[in-house]
Design goal:
The chain has about 675 residues and is α+β, with helices and mostly antiparallel strands. α2 packs across α7 (about 200-225), α10 (about 360-370) crosses α12 and α11 crosses α12 (about 405-425). The longest helix has 28 residues, at about 200-225.
Length: about 675
Amino acid sequence: MSTQSSTASTALLAVDTGGTFTDLVLLREGRIKTLKIPSTPDDPAQAVLDGIASILSADNAFTLLHGSTVATNALLERRGATVVLVTNRGFEDVIEIGRQNRPQLYALVGHRLPPLVDRHDRLGVAGRLGPRGELIDALDDSELGELAGRILARGADAIAISLLHSYANPDHEEAVARAVEATGLPVSVSCHLVPEFREYERTSTTVVNAYVAPIMNRYLGRLSDEAGAERVTIMGSNGGTIPVDRARKEPVHTILSGPAGGVVGALTWARLSGHDHVMSFDMGGTSTDVSLCPGRPLRTREFEIAGQPTAIPVIDIHTVGAGGGSLARLDAGGALRVGPQSAGAQPGPICYGRGGSGVTVTDAHVWLGRLPADAFLGGDDALDRESIRSPLEAMALRLGKNADDAAEGILAVADTAMERALRVISVERGYDPADFAIVAFGGAGGLHVAELTRRLRAFKAIVPPDPGLLSAYGMLASPMSRETSRTVLLSADVDDAQASLDATLAELESQARSEMLDEGASKEDLTAELWVDARYAGQSFELRVPASNWIQRFHDAHEERYGHRRETAPVEAVTLRAIVTAPPPPLRVTRLREAHGPVQGTSMQVAFAGARIEASRIWRSDLAAGHEFVGPFVVQEYSGTTWVPPGWQVAVDEWGCLHLTPPFE
């Protein structure tokens, strides 16, 4: 990757912390420098600080762009804060009742994860507002005076406040927030986080924010204090960046921080190569993240993680527990399983030589020869293939297979899990994979993308340069953004409805612009998009359409989605939104040199389809624009490896992307 910036006086350092590796991409004076180091799960900030010390000199001025899975892992592993939830009396169980959806449709007795707040830590208070913000019952001042003491008595680490209809009138929530200030604990208030209706999702989002707030505040605070950066910016789940101070107060916006950067990076490279209809395929060490981009990243507010809905704008990403470090095992019935358990960064796969004992997907690739043991991290580190033999042969014996067949079986099971994920975001949503290219990245993406492209019958695969560092690169290409919203529940038939909507949209846009300016954006760079979540009267869910001519646009969108329209039915504007963005730093990619002569590879042995075959291996840095070759090939580079099966054609474009075309019949 050779990227240049017209504003290089201060270096830009993008850091993506994953479950296995922490990736760093430094842009300074038009040059890119990269580094991968093992993550430190017990103290994620340490790997970031170690990486900064390794890649930068002490006197370098730099801006830190950071994406992290710290909040994600805290939720998945249930190791967040002890939260006290303050809500209306009689509504303490909203987060436990939920929507009463059955998590296992055909199970006689379904099981759901317990809520993040125990029952005795949910405090109901007097007071009630109506859906228009009108006062029904006043707050009890004496009860508010005792509230801080009740919370401290429960040993709370954080406080979540969610009262009915605070989107229409925030007075009660703000009064409760003032009453608990004396605790000195971090306070999450729903009217500030999600000023929208649907009390379950709003309450759940507020609780999630409170649950991860203490750990994220410590983590980001340490980075701010010790990284030495002039400015720290955090990748948000919606594909835009946010300042670190906001991320510390509203860490729920970082839940999909790292994966969001990958989607932005994948689409950026795909557009350079002439494609904007892609499926991003990010296979790291612990998990695989996939996302559909039909010309743009798809965003949603119907997002759930670890059983907890979070009504914040996020890039629509689907995750499965299949990565390079995923452990293979035999279940009670003797069937081969892969993941979701992972060897992680410590001890990692067996071939890393750090004490790992379980066979992983990476071990299978090394054994089969598709990941050359002497080319790991650009040849700076060597993998131990022989250490895989004993545990792999033991597993093969139980399967009644030889070691090669067992290793290929491990890869096939992992491929099935990832194929299912790609079908969820495409086929199950009415999209034909044949209309999309699969953009593969992450350390292991290039090793699996050919097989997944074949299974899905996508028309090609694209592997960008430095695929193992693409999520970090995506942070460099991500805009700064701020979204504001407000539920209005206003019928278009009401007198002066449009004037009221226009006034509210203008207020939301002004608020978003003001916050962007406070966060350091330039006024001249800001652009705004205005949206309306609309529905027919009586419907339960909405469709989002641009605010301009929103009624007609809603009819059209409804017909496109559901096959019919109701021109005579009243249309309701449910929630209004303003999204203000500022562009990322100006980046331009330098074209590769033109190819002169064919690709020159060296011979190696690779196991494929039950046989040992001759393949060629080449360093990606030796490829030039216009090079074409046919597999079997192994393309190796610092941050990843690409496996090109027999018969697959590869073309190298002027930007350095590999285009893999399958030999379909």
